[in-house]
Amino acid sequence: MLNKNEFALNLLEWYHINKRDLPWRQTNDPYKIWLSEVMLQQTQVQTVIPYFNKFIDKYPTLDDLANADEQEVLKDWEGLGYYNRIRNLHSAVKEVQYTYNSIVPQKPKQFFELKGVGPYIGGAVQSIAFNHRIAAVDGNVLRVMARLNEDNRDISKQSTVKSVKSYVESIIPLESGDFNQALMELGATICTPRIPKCLSCPVQSHCESFKSNSVLQYPKKKSSKKKTELYYNIFLILNDKNEVYMFMNESNLLKGMYKFPKYDIDTSIGTIEEELNLKLSQLKEPIAEEKHVFTHQVWYMNVYLLYTNSESEHFIKIKDVSDYPMSVAMQKVFKHLN
DNA sequence: CAACCGTGGAT
DNA sequence: TATCCAAGGTT
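ok -> structure tokens follow
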């Protein structure tokens, strides 16, 4: 059983000496802390840093972000992935603007009700910005706690996360924000997934799995399922005005991002002409093949070049394409026009 | 609740 | 190349 007071003391002492100097640790602004937590969702620190700096430079206050055009914000998020994160955050800061006079709610209940604020981000922001004693349980914390207690439960189950959250809140000290960050920092730098640095660990003496030499057996997690493989034809349709056919994606995957016409490989040109209301040139061999891997899908894309004299509101000047938010998958397609 | 939702880096 | 992982949330 964990000696709570001694554990927290050891961990916090280590953290205060060893914490990394990250951009979002140079501010007490709840908005900026919130932004960083949203960016850090399932995304590595090194990836987030340049995006965070760009956003803070361009949208220094909550009102700057709230007043911004959604498509421009999406464009600035381009390449970071999980695009609903920024769509939800944009919506949430607008909510804060008109409901809370542009002040990030200090009442946990109010903050947790905002779009895109779940158990982790809610706990992180409320503890770091306002010192509320709420846990912030991410993948790092799940791994650290599983190893400390030789916890055999599956960390991919929501019930486990909920239970660990309660456990952390039973040991969380008054310095709640630092404690939450210290647990994550420990997981990110010492108690790492593959080669943990147990000999440098400040809480080694509290660790059950270290005592029994079973650290690498934790955390328990069910293996991920196989990705669905999908085969598509992507069409770069050009007219005689240096324009290409492009439109906003409405489906859940990559919602709000622009795309080129994308069809299952067995879809006939006639069907496509009918759906797009265009008269198209004869189909020739694909000019390229591309593969793109998502969390749960793999796209194998054949890239085709087509021409038309038909008119449509969906034609965009090729030189202006880069002004529109586009997924990496579609960027891989578009690069073959250059 | 299990499935969905991006991307890049490490091994 | 295949798999896992990374400061998770929504449905």
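Residues 4-217 of chain A form a domain with the Endonuclease III; domain 1 fold (CATH 1.10.340.30).
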